[in-house]
Amino acid sequence: MNRSIVRFIFCVAAAVLVATPVGAFRRARPIGNAYPAWSPDGRKIAFQSTRTGDNELFVMNIDGTDVTRLTDNSGYDVHASWTPDSRRIVFASNRSQGQSTAGRLHLYVMDANGQHPTRITNDAGEDSFPEVSRDGRRIVFINDRTGKREAYIVNIDGSNLTPLTTLLPRRRTEVGNPHWSPDGGRIVFDADLGGTYDIYSVRVDGSDLQQLTHSPAASGSVFWAAYSPAGTELVYERGDTDNWRMFAMKADGSASTQISPDGPGDDFHPSWSPDGSRLTFSSDRAQKGVFDIWIVNRDGSGLTRITHGAQ
Length: 311
Known about the structure:
The protein has a single domain, classed as TolB, C-terminal domain (Neuraminidase), CATH 2.120.10.30. Helix content is 7%, strand content 38%. The protein has 2 helices and 24 strands. The chain has a 4-stranded antiparallel β-sheet with strand order 1-2-3-4, with no helix packed on it. It is globular, with a radius of gyration of 18 Å.
């Protein structure tokens, strides 16, 4: 699968679906459920789904029951991230702002029940892939104001926008998928700084860049690294065969092991349970091209599908 498609597959699909009538969508396109985010209290999973015709945000119990729609507007809503108290959700949306058509993605925060959505960024470019820090005070996210996607940090009220990766050495790359360390001191992200996409870590002031993976040019790339709740491991997705699978490694990049079992389809967007014992992720392993939400134990056992299209 093309690397750029892997990183933005659901955002691109969402942009197409905005202009597609709901009836036509249901006839022509399978429903996709993606980007799951486990709530810090361990009770819920937020995710985005195309079950209503465009990408909207939903929440469900961790067994897949009690699916509740959180957003409903003319644009699309994506990339949910919980605040540490599980009472609010930060997300990206291109919902219209008094205009007839949806605009660029910007960051919003809303109550965990979908009420009181408030826009918190109003900057140049497009904002995406937000993640709230463990202390609930800051958000790391991606913005393309420079012509390339870069990582930025902003306070949760939208103040004090700070660039994180704009001064890093690079070739032709764009930065993607930033995630906080539990202590708030570092950010991991993926980028093509040396010929293939790899995982990097940097301090929140932009210093001390460390390369954590070294993917051979001929064997694919890695994306989407996220720290375990204890900060001792990173889960990430690797595509060095025909399929993408989840792996875990120590926080320094050593001792990589495969988590998700082999099989058909691709596994993307892992999110840790609060106790670090399980992961939720999106995968089309049940039907190629049709993504649903799954859960698996950290040791790779207990693989369970918890969404089934519109259910």
